[in-house]
């Protein structure tokens, strides 16, 4: 079988290298220093996160990826101020984070719109919460327009598709004009086509406003397509494995999914997240220990 020779994921074109140089000269918006989180559970102490360190620069797009249970959701909840941490600190614009605040917008996987409010009212609700009173309809409409839903401003959530609901959730989060947008698998519940469209929308939105994004995902392609850098975590305990600079140039487009830089990055993520089978057992850690639940003489046994 012939193999395609891929470049190293560390190889960067001149343009990509220059982009990273400029990006790292921008101010640091969010800094995570020595962050740790332990949970006490009936089974004992669980170290969900250990010594996590990273910085995001202004208008940077960082994706966080890792196997199930590596602490992605715990990390984003701590960044949002919804969960306390056990050690280390989170600094936003150099100030410690000690709870939720309008400087951080959140978009979750589940649809979190108020079903009894229209699209416009949902967007305005966020603004009222952040005490930006006196907000005009017009301002809400600008955010709704940004996510391409002007025609649906007076619709209720049940009248919208899944993708449209997530666009409203993004508009609502952005209307507060946060410094950072925290997104926890926001497109995880969408079908593949809608998900691809939402990724393109998000990149368009990000290009047009001054926002730094931390985006949690399980999906390797999604992470490479969206991110400037990808923070790769490992599980038990959740620790940083690597912070990868994505060598795929901007502007991003779906044709790049098969480019050598994209495939090389994907191969690296695969190796980090789904390591080869263990040498001792020949089985990967998540091998299922299947127990036979049907009698041996079951009439369909012979077809397997
Ligand atoms: N409230 C809690 N009490 C006890 N343990 C918890 C709690 N929340 C999370 N954990 C544990 O912390 C670890 C990290 O969980 P977390 O949900 O952050 O991981 P994740 O990477 O988001 O997982 P997934 O990708 O499956 O959603 C897991 O081992 C989990 O069991």
Structure explained in plain terms:
The structure is a single chain. The protein has 304 residues and is an alpha/beta fold. It has one domain: Rossmann fold (3-Layer(aba) Sandwich), CATH 3.40.50.300. It contains eight helices and ten strands. It has helices at residues 14-25, 72-80, 119-129, 137-146, 162-175, 192-208, 220-226, 260-273; strands at residues 28-41, 44-57, 61-65, 87-92, 95-96, 104-107, 180-184, 212-216, 229-234, 239-245. Strands 6-7-8-3-9-10 form a six-stranded mixed beta sheet, with helices on both faces. Helix 3 (119-129) crosses helix 4 (137-146). It starts with 13 loop residues before the first helix and ends in a 31-residue tail after the last helix. Mean pLDDT is 88; it is low at 278-282. The structure holds adenosine-5'-triphosphate. Adenosine-5'-triphosphate binds at residues 39, 41, 46, 48, 66, 68-74, 238. Residues 30-260 form the ABC transporter domain.
Offer a quick outline of the entry.
The protein is α/β, with parallel strands linked by helices. It is built from 8 helices and 10 strands. It is 31% helix and 22% strand.
Task: Report the top-level CATH class.
Answer: Alpha Beta
CATH superfamily: P-loop containing nucleotide triphosphate hydrolases
Could you please say which CATH topology applies here? Rossmann fold
Structural class: alpha/beta
> What's the architecture in CATH terms?
3-Layer(aba) Sandwich
What proportion strand?
Answer: 15-25%
* Rg measurement, Å: 22 Å
Shape: globular
Give the number of DSSP strands.
10
Would you tell me the overall average pLDDT?
88
Termini gap: 29 Å
Low-confidence stretches: 278-282
Largest sheet: 6 strands, mixed
SS element count, helices: 8
Number of domains: 1
Provide the succession of SSEs: HEEEHEEEHHHEHEHEEH
Query: Helix proportion of residues, in percent?
Result: 25-40%
Bound molecules: adenosine-5'-triphosphate
Order the strands across the largest sheet as they lie in space: 6-7-8-3-9-10
